[in-house]
Design brief:
The protein has 238 residues and is α+β, with helices and mostly antiparallel strands. The protein contains nine helices and four strands. The strands form two sheets. It has a two-stranded antiparallel sheet. It has a two-stranded antiparallel sheet with strand order 3-4. The N and C termini lie far apart (41 Å).
């Protein structure tokens, strides 16, 4: 299974042309949420918890971030994300750390950095696409194999099918798949899943998958990404 940020990147781009399907800022906030959750998956951070140094104990703190394990992670992207969490956690001791981190980390050309990383690990390849009968050639980036994007869509569809069929003949979706469903809904990517349902109905199912999941941390990050996207829309109207 690909990392969450890689699956989300693939869903946000056309398989055949490499065209980005949503705007840069929206994708960036979604990728930031995906990378943050990957740190949580690997137990490098706590989300929604704070540490009382006086009492030497953890306490629930919605919207707060805390580092559980420092040091190198899986790759340079998550290393940078973890370093940013450490900085934000030191400065923001109230409940706004999560949204502050998402906005800050997304602002640093994150889609381009993710793309460069996916090229480096061999998931994407640089190629030229011809248009207008070969008169115009543009550079783009495509998956090295279509199966990667197909599998990402399949994970989302399987999660919906699990709830639609009330768990019959399927296993419940894991944290990463539920997160992918939530981020897909938050970034309005449902129409590009080619599911056969209307975009509205499928989006409702994707949100339902998240609501029914028993892990509050996934819901909290998806909600923060959704709110961050709303912040971007408000800022654009000013």
């Amino acid at each position: 299974m690909l990392p969450l940020h890689a699956e989300l990147y693939l869903l946000a781009h056309d398989d055949d042309t490499g065209k980005q399907l949503i705007n840069e800022q929206t994708l960036a906030i979604g990728l930031a949420g995906a990378l943050l959750l990957e740190l949580w998956f690997t137990k490098h951070i706590y989300i929604g918890w704070g540490f009382d140094t006086w009492k030497q104990q953890w306490y629930e703190a919605p919207g707060q971030l805390a580092v559980a394990k420092s040091g190198p992670t899986a790759n340079s992207l998550t290393d940078a994300a973890l370093a940013a969490v450490e900085r934000v956690a030191r400065i923001h001791t109230s409940g706004d750390a999560l949204r502050t981190w998402l906005r800050g980390f997304a602002a640093n050309d994150l889609p381009e950095r993710v793309r460069a990383n996916l090229i480096m690990i061999g998931l994407l390849r640089r190629t030229q696409v011809s248009r207008w009968g070969g008169l115009v050639k543009t550079e783009t980036y495509l998956p090295v194999h279509h199966r990667y994007a197909v599998r990402a869509r399949a994970h989302v569809k399987d999660a919906v099918a699990y709830h639609e069929r009330q768990g019959r003949h399927r296993t419940s979706p894991d944290d990463q798949t539920v997160a992918l469903c939530g981020l897909t809904a938050a970034l309005e990517l449902a129409e590009f899943l080619y599911d056969g349902r209307s975009t509205r109905e499928l989006t409702q199912w994707l949100r339902y998958v998240v609501e029914q999941h028993d892990e509050a941390t996934v819901r909290a990050v998806v909600t923060a990404v959704d709110a961050g996207r709303g912040d971007l829309a408000v800022a654009a109207m000013r």
